[in-house]
Amino acid sequence: MADPMLLMLIYAPLLAGALNLFFPRVLQKILAGLCLGLCGYLAAVLFSGGVVPFPGDSAPVPLRYFGLDRLSLFALVAVQALALIIFLFTLRGVDSEIEKSFFVLYPLTLGFTNGTLLSDNAVALMIFWGLSGLMLYLFNLLGRGAGAPESAKKTFILVGGSDAFLILGLVLMGVSLPAAGWSLHLMRFPLAGFANILAFVCLAIAALAKAGGFPLHTWVPPFAKEAPVEAVAFMPASLDKILGIYLLARMVTSLFAVTTAVHLVLITLGTVTVITAVMMALIQHNGRRLLGYHAVSQVGYMIMGVGSGSALAFAGGLFHLLNNAIYKSSLFLTLGSVEKKTGSHELDDLGGLGALMPVTSLAGLISALSISGIPPFNGFFSKWMIYQGLLEKARDASRPEAIWLLICLVLAVFGSALTLASFLKFLHAVFLGKRPKVHDGVTEAPVNQRISTAILSLLCIVFGLFAIHIPLREFILPILHENGMAVPAYPGVYKAGLVLVMMAAAFALALLVYLLTRRKVRYDDVYLGGMDALEKFRVSGTAFYREIRDMEPLRFLYDQAEKHRFDLKEILTGGTLRLSGLFQKVHPGFLSLYLLFIVLGMLVFLLIK
After folding, report:
1. pLDDT band for position 251 (50/70/90)?
2. Counting beta carbons within 10 angstroms of the beta carbon of residue 391, is it exposed (0 to 12), middle (13 to 18) or buried (19 or more)?
3. Which helix (H) or strand (E) holds 528?
4. Residues with Cβ < 8 Å from 353, sequence gap 6 or more?
5. Cα–Cα distance between 368 and 377 in angstroms, integer?
6. With contact defined as beta carbons under 8 Å apart, do 237 and 332 qualify?
7. Whole-prediction pTM value?
8. 529 backbone φψ class: left, alpha, beta (φ>0; ψ -120 to 50)
9. 65, 164, 44: which is closest to 123 by C-alpha?
């Protein structure tokens, strides 16, 4: 009975996307809403019924390629819920010039994502994975900025190019184990031998590129800046992170028998992702790029957790994947609401909007505290689980391994502190400080946008207070049971309720101090030379952070980053052009030189033989 549901989760959104090519905008939204509601209902039914056994060769052709275990069920439910919440935001506010195309791509993206998560056949996974990547490129082209075409090209090169590695890895696995019949749940490889190691590396490249992990992350910030904000919240902030980490989790639990050395490599990659991205986010003056770099930095924690080899950290990595999709989508949508009202996402152009957009600013505050790992919000608990898991692993490791793990842990904690500093800048620049006069007439976001961000903010609170009772117990611990991992004991004395009471008491005390002293505070206007200061002399929320940009040795590193010295796409492009130039020099068109090449080639061939 449940097998056809899996197909409906794929076919329904694909059909809705195809029909929306011909429907007017109102019908597009209605059809997309009905489709998303149906997918949400099917996901709820599947969740209540549990896993769907992987079919054998006797099943009908379409059904034999799809199945559902606890890991894919977790990702599937998260995707449907996020798609519904973000869709609510899109009902009013999408740019009218791209609205028709947007509501074609939106359900198609959901269908391809569902197909990827449900695929048990390697060929089906290749197809749906590639098509979901194509949606990134098409959404990027809907951007109205001058940099949208270049951003789309970079996305296509990095994400699309990584698809070739996915295909190579899966082909190597299929050839190495033909008895599996390309069924992923029947594949299990030791990390020994060139073919198996190469297959693992190829799949890891595809997973890191999709999720936005170092060094394949450089498509995320440009996409975040140039694509429609609704698409950014839908894809790199949530769906693509889920797909990339889902594949990585699948690799380390069921596809490969991962060694300690590989665990250390993944933890290191995650640490580098955290630090490099958060350092870049710290100096951004564009709100979307700032959030884009933080979308990358948060992937680092997921890679550290999922790739650690610790059951506690693995659960924390999956929990952080869910948490990140929630608060990162909320942050992008919050900034999107501000952008639609002010016409800008440059932090220097904003400020003082908290009084005019109270619901939006509250959602931004909650989401910012969540991503910064402030208790009792959800981001704290998942990071705490990852840290505890790494400490447990260091305790049982050899001395050199333990030292390296502790270094990675310290850097990850430092990255979390920098995240808080970065979001203090974000909140001050957007909602606090002195408001530019041009924004005095700004009003609160439309009700659909407020409801969407409010739901996401509420989830940040609920998943923080009831982390063990709801997301962990219902979604993540069954994944550990299914893969034979020990259920983590959550060591420590953290009590969410106690932290909530303490935070509420601190807030009440601060409010009391404010009420008692507000009449004694004097507010003065700013004058320059005895005259009212011009608008251009307004101090923005980014002014303090300019000093960080000019500090040594950070200044040199930031200069190199701005010259794209660490951009993998630019490195590969430059290397290709230099190699092409070398070939051009050795092929000037002289027949005598070509004859010499032929003779030298024959001599080399004879020597080899």
Report:
1. very high
2. middle
3. strand 527-528
4. 338, 341, 342, 360, 361, 430, 431, 435, 439, 442
5. 10
6. yes
7. 0.91
8. left
9. 65
Two tokens, residue 415: 């990255």
Instruction: Please report the pLDDT score of residue 600 as a whole number.
Output: 87
CA distance readout (Å), 39 to 23, 30, 78: 21, 14, 11
Position 110 scores a pLDDT of 97
Backbone φ and ψ of 147, nearest 5°: -90, 0
Whole-number average pLDDT of the chain: 89
Side chain identity, residue 269: L
Pairing verdict, β 527-528 and 189-190: unpaired
CA-nearest of 465, 296, 461 to 363 is 461
200 and 251 Cβ atoms separated by less than 8 Å? yes
**Spatial separation of the C-alpha atoms in residues 64 and 121, rounded to whole Å:** 8
Q: pLDDT tens digits, residue range 118-164?
A: 999 999 999 999 999 999 999 999 998 888 999 999 999 999 999 99
pLDDT digits (tens, 9 = 90+) for 299-327: 999 999 999 999 999 999 999 999 999 99
Alpha helices in 533-590 (DSSP H): 546-549, 554-562, 568-586
What pLDDT score was predicted for residue 561? 79
3-state SS, residue 183:
strand
Integer Cα distance of 220 and 217 in angstroms: 6
CA distance linking residue 541 with residue 310, whole number of Å: 40
Closest CA to 219 of 160, 266, 168, 271: 160
The residues near 405 (Cβ < 8 Å, ≥ 6 apart) are 264, 267, 390, 393, 394, 397
Q: Measured on CA atoms in the order 226, 229, 235, 236, is the torsion positive or negative? A: positive
The per-residue pLDDT for range 442-453, each reduced to its tens digit, is: 999 999 999 999
